[in-house]
Amino acid sequence: MANKYIVVFKKDTSADTIKNHESEIKKCGGEVHDSYDSVLKGFSAVIPDSYLLQLQSLQGGEIDYIEADGVVTTQ
Q: Which domain of life is it from (predicted)?
């Protein structure tokens, strides 16, 4: 799916900060699909380009990495 990403936050990022980003994605017309908090902190979402740029600017700070969500297969 186009514009679907997995956003992973640093371990010390607060749950409130992550929820704020989820809310902003929804306000911009995106959709949050899954939230993760056991092995890693983050979520998968369809993120509008305008908000994706803002999230990408936070990499190295509160965000560890952002990658396109897709199907992974093994042979």
A: Eukaryota
